User: Fold this.
Amino acid sequence: MTPFMWRVQELLEGDAGQAPDTEPSIEVSVAEGTDTQVIVRSLAEQLVSEANAVLAWHAGENPREVTLVDETGPGTLAFTLACGDRSARIETQITGHTATAQLIDDDAPAAEPRRLTDEDQLQSLVLELIAD
Assistant:
């Protein structure tokens, strides 16, 4: 099992999760923004697979899974992670020569757009979705 799979198992056994660290969204170049979105999306797919392997093992009478749904549209690269009634969307909006990443989740909307501080915070986000 991977270290992340152990964290999922510990969460299912009662350990507390930790909310992901976020920071205000900033504009970056389109190249940097799309590169980061692709990296985060690739990592999300791996984490969803690992989380679902552990969730299936612990399914019992309440089976659940983490889902990942890609979304694209004019000027937007996005995906949504969900587990049960919780979801979070990670999107990159492209406007002209700049891109802005944003985390949109079920919690109270932020006064200003926020993004994950780094790719590692995606683990905390997936765990937070599973915990509820």
